[in-house]
Amino acid sequence: MTASVFFGCTFIAFGPAIALFLFTIAREPLRVIFLIAGAFFWLVSLLLSSLVWFISVQISNKESAAQQKGLLIFGVVLCVLLQETFLGASTRTENTVSGLGFGFMSGAFSVVNILADSVGPGTVGIHGDSQHYFLSSAFMTMAIILLHMFWGVVFFDACEKQRWWAVGAVVASHLVVSCLTFQNPEYVNSLVPTYVILLLMGVWAFYSAGGSLRNLKLCLTCKDKDFLLANHRPR
Amino acid sequence: MNASDSDEDVYNERTALVPSETPAVPSYRPDDLSMPDDLPTQRAKPGLSRRGGPAAVDGSGGGGGSDQEVDADDEELTLKYGAKHVIMLFIPVTLCMAVVVATIKSVSFYTEKTDQQLIYTPFTENTASVGRRLLNSVLNTIIMISVIVVMTIFLVVLYKYRCYKFIHGWLILSSLMLLFWFSFMYLGEVFKTYNVAVDYPTVGVIIWNFGAVGMICIHWKGPLPLQQAYLILISALMALVFIKYLPEWSAWVILGAISVYDLVAVLSPKGPLRMLVETAQERNEPIFPALIYSSAMMWTVGMASPMEAQRSEHQSDEEAEQSGGGVEPERRQFPEDELEEDRGVKLGLGDFIFYSVLVGKAAATGGDWNTTLACFVAILIGLCLTLLLLAIFKKALPALPISITFGLVFYFSTDFLVQPFMDNLAAHQFYI
């Protein structure tokens, strides 16, 4: 179980993101710096929301499980809102790469400890919890990373074109995705809608970035040299 | 420190990070490191400083008259060039940290509690009360920093009075110890961890080859990537020694104090590092280039100048001592009609060491990867900001303060605030 689960989950969670990184970002030093700056901004937003959550927990009733869960949900919502604020700030100054930076950091923070535990000896769900903990975490992480990137692209485009409804839609979809995870461990209820939203956001981001069916056809049949990812200028 | 005017003519390439002064002098850091058994050793001081003198005037030579043309195109080129240099430092720093974290997580030797301490941190932390422990760690820090200050001043004095042979010998001794003794210990511990039985003759051959090639690459000549790899490895080894032998709280206080010291030593007019830089510039020779990680080769093809001869002579001396340099842009030594050369940037080895100590300590305490990741990103961003400042001010800058500050802030806040939050989220599988 251990090594194969570890590698499998790692590649599921980070595979697409690393592929994106290698093909579009790794060659341009400036984009790498923006990526790391994006990760840093995500970290700052997480820090602030953790601070608020921590303070609220300290002044609350520690015995009541319901209250603790409520505070946790509040923490999640606050975190999402802060993340979107920082995404807005960073896409102003940088470009869409910061969305991927957000994604990397968010995915890493969610899943790295789980991956580290999956190496060691143990049995999943021995106390009656779900057997699919690792796998669902990996899939969720992949979705989150890609979603962050799509949100970054759409956000940037929306800010450029002053379409505030689009900004609101991005924030709303982020909140929806996070709230869907409150239903874990009923994975069907949370993963499936998340992937649907992922697909929709992907299509939206594709069109915002200037893609179209024609471009897609040319790209897939390798007829459009200009459309090769590696030649794209940073947005 | 003023660049001599004649030097400005040599540089006409437009770069963001190039200073136009006399030989790139890495900021220096004396090495002081002592083993528990009291061998005299050296410790690399951190200090990323951009050694460069006043402004990258070389751009001014060529670019001064062409203000109009320079504009957007130039700016973009400058930005890209600067970004390239940042990445040229990100990669080795990342590699060093990766080696340290991988070792800490797998070889338990470096995280085992030990009663042995460096003689520079004599006060124990196994005390009953928190106040006493804090006091002991502050005292340890004061002793450590004083030792560093004394060694630095001693080195500056030696350099000023041209005792090159002494410095040379000191450097060779310290790199001998690092390359042979510490790597032997490291190899032994790795074999123990993975339960691999290896005989002494094999180990002897391996260590001999590793050490001998390392000495040649670092102190004499060798392919640049190999030299860079060796410098990264010895920085990692040194960082591991610090992580093992520095007591918990003392390590954190020392990290903070050494950033302050670095700031003072490099920027204040009477600072020892600054004096060293100035002396080196007056004499027109580089200081200890071998213990500074340099990202690009200094090409001296076709350049037969007395400066060059001097430089290669001093290269070996400088190794061990100066690892604490700073970031500096490398200087091109050849006349205008030579090929354009990528100058690269330099970063002192002590900076590598202390960055790795911070990240390694974050990995060692707790078993939590989020803290390690947070410190890693914080340090990289700090380095990026430092290089940005370097491009703006174009003179030697300390590399530690910004990165270590960010690293410490993120370590403590992630450990105390973010970790409980993330643990709770992971337990319920909530995603943010």
Automatic annotation (TrEMBL), chain A:
Keywords: Membrane, Notch signaling pathway, Transmembrane, Transmembrane helix. InterPro entries: Aph-1 (IPR009294). The chain crosses the membrane at residues 6-25, 32-59, 71-89, 96-116, 136-156, 163-184, 190-207. It comes from the Eukaryota. Belongs to the APH-1 family. One of its GO terms (biological process) is Notch signaling pathway. It is a multi-pass membrane protein. Potential subunit of the gamma-secretase complex, an endoprotease complex that catalyzes the intramembrane cleavage of integral proteins such as Notch receptors. The keyword Transmembrane applies. It is found in: Membrane. Component of the gamma-secretase complex. This is Gamma-secretase subunit APH-1. It comes from Scophthalmus maximus. GO terms for cellular component: gamma-secretase complex.
TrEMBL record, chain B:
The chain crosses the membrane at residues 86-104, 138-159, 166-188, 200-218, 373-393, 399-418. The keyword ATP-binding does not apply. Its main location: endoplasmic reticulum. Keywords: Endoplasmic reticulum, Golgi apparatus, Hydrolase, Membrane, Notch signaling pathway, Protease, Transmembrane, Transmembrane helix. One of its GO terms (biological process) is amyloid-beta formation. Its EC number is 3.4.23.-. GO terms for cellular component: endoplasmic reticulum membrane; gamma-secretase complex; Golgi membrane. Residues 1-70, 310-339 are annotated as: Disordered. Homodimer. Belongs to the peptidase A22A family. The PAL motif is required for normal active site conformation. This is Presenilin. It comes from Scophthalmus maximus (Turbot).
